[in-house]
Automatic annotation (TrEMBL), chains A, B:
This is peptidylprolyl isomerase. Keywords: Isomerase, Rotamase, Signal. Residues 49-249 form the PPIase cyclophilin-type domain. The keyword Iron does not apply. Gene3D superfamilies: Cyclophilin-like (2.40.100.10). Its EC number is 5.2.1.8. GO terms for molecular function: peptidyl-prolyl cis-trans isomerase activity. Pfam families: Pro_isomerase. Residues 1-21 form the signal peptide.
Length: 309, 309
């Protein structure tokens, strides 16, 4: 009987360590394809339509999920701007290799010609961090160069510090992060100028600028845009800028035109198995599984819901 | 007198910690622009012409520096292939968003139609690591998720382990790294199929595949190529592949057509200052200098030599 309890306790540990370390009972460790193939409907969530931003370019469509839990004032302003069709006909003004794609009003610095912000706020508080206790957190156990702790919060890669250090959490500048451009003053952004990280994750920007969400689909559209040849990838010639057809909130896109998307939940055993599949790559090709993975090298999967769901 | 000695000892410490930590005597910490502006000719080296590979596409030119210290057999074979003009008229066969651009012979798997390798070897040993003692090493003090130690060796980002762990060093899969594609067998590469990392650094590939060098200039050419729409970014339609005009060794490029390039030395106090300028960003825009930097977020500068040199 005691032996039975001991066994049960060991099994419990084994199940925990499976998630971020070893394989179960000698079974072959799972690849990411295995993990995704074994997910069920409850391993996925459907983002709120009011949290989705559809960016339409001639080159294709980009869908962003906003993160109101981390940047409530910016997200509220971005929703206002989208409802006013503020960005329609404005432009991508910057495409910098290994860094960002950025869009907004090329005339925003010119009071006479700048597009009206309408009902939107002109200036917002910096939303660089939030109280760690206010947001969900699934921790990655492998450490990080930039922050004391890293992991995921409702699908977004995040970093945080301990309660003793300040008890703050923040969105991390991983590839596909979306942020709000600002001038030198920390509180000089209003969400009308947005950027997407398209290169090696510039984590030194964390806590220096407000992140507002991440791209769910369409990174290949942004990544393939022609690079700007001016300093920092800005287009010096207005004719080279890339026109924005429209930016809409998901809730304002006609139902027939919406892309049905689901994001893998990051607070589940299935996601822990996914992380493990990236920590130790077991596809036949790999000869040296590392046993660790960097935050920004774990993709948080996005799918169109299967017909049976 | 004792006090004088104590002061001298403290100064010594201060100078050491300047390189990777604090500022000297209250002086404003340097930005990268400051550091580069203060370099002298001896802070730069000119790569050997036989270590340079010029890749010419319609979209522009890419210049790669090969790393014979890390992959001697692969580099020797790549030199043979370039001298035979092996790649001329072949193609970029894969452009995968946030991962790699890859080129070679689309018919390499078809014995009847594959291009002849001529004097080049068909198969090479895996060159995943070298003895750490055989290569230079300037250490980055900020740690790393994937390897016990990271830093630079003659301009290349590298990782290594301690003598007790195996005493090996290896090139790191940072953005702009160039590697030799292989099949499942570790020794199935020959350097005829090459790839360049164009996205967030896939460090899990370290020690799984042979890296042969890094791109010095032209990443914006590769980064802006249209993405392949097949699995893993391969072009499914042969017409979508991107033609290679030519690949030449620098020593075979007519002098008038060469790009005069210098690479910042990574074993100098100037480079230590550059790293420090990336660890603590002091440009006015930044409000939160991190005090740390990830290996792949430190650019190793490349320049055209100034007229006065």
């Amino acid at each position: 009987m005691r032996r039975g309890m001991f066994t049960a306790a060991c099994l419990g540990l084994a199940l925990v360590s499976t998630a971020f370390g070893r394989s179960e009972g000698g079974a072959r460790p799972l690849t990411m394809a295995d993990v995704l193939g074994a997910t069920t409907a409850s391993d996925w969530r459907t983002p709120e339509l009011a949290d989705l931003l559809y960016l339409d370019l001639e080159a294709g469509r980009v869908v962003i999920e906003l993160a109101p839990a981390f940047a409530p004032a910016h997200v509220a302003n971005i929703r206002k701007l989208a409802r006013q069709k503020y960005w329609d006909g404005l432009a991508i003004v910057r495409v910098q290799e290994n860094y960002v794609v950025q869009w907004g009003d090329p005339e925003s610095g010119n009071a006479d010609r700048a597009r009206e912000l309408g009902a939107a706020e002109r200036q917002l508080p910096a939303e660089f961090t939030v109280a760690a206790s206010a947001v969900a957190f699934t921790r990655l156990p492998d450490g990080d160069v930039y922050a004391p702790q890293v992991g995921w919060s409702n699908g977004f890669p995040v970093a945080r510090e301990s309660a003793a250090d300040g008890d703050q959490a923040w969105l991390a500048h991983c590839y596909a992060a979306v942020g709000a451009g600002r001038e030198n003053a920390a509180d000089s952004s209003n969400g009308s100028e947005l950027y997407v990280v398209t290169g090696h994750s510039p984590r030194h920007l964390d806590r220096n600028i407000t992140l507002v969400g991440r791209v769910l689909t369409g990174m290949e559209v942004l990544g393939g845009l022609p690079r700007g040849r001016g300093p920092m990838g800005f287009f010096e010639d207005a004719a080279q800028r890339i026109a924005i057809r429209s930016i809409r909130l998901g809730s304002d896109v006609p139902e027939a035109e919406r892309v049905p998307l689901q994001v893998m939940r990051t607070d589940t055993p299935a996601f822990e198995r996914l992380v493990e599949s990236r920590r130790n790559r077991r596809e036949e090709w790999f000869v040296h599984p590392v046993g660790k993975v960097e935050l920004c090298n774990v993709p948080v999967p996005v799918r169109q819901p299967p017909p049976e769901d």
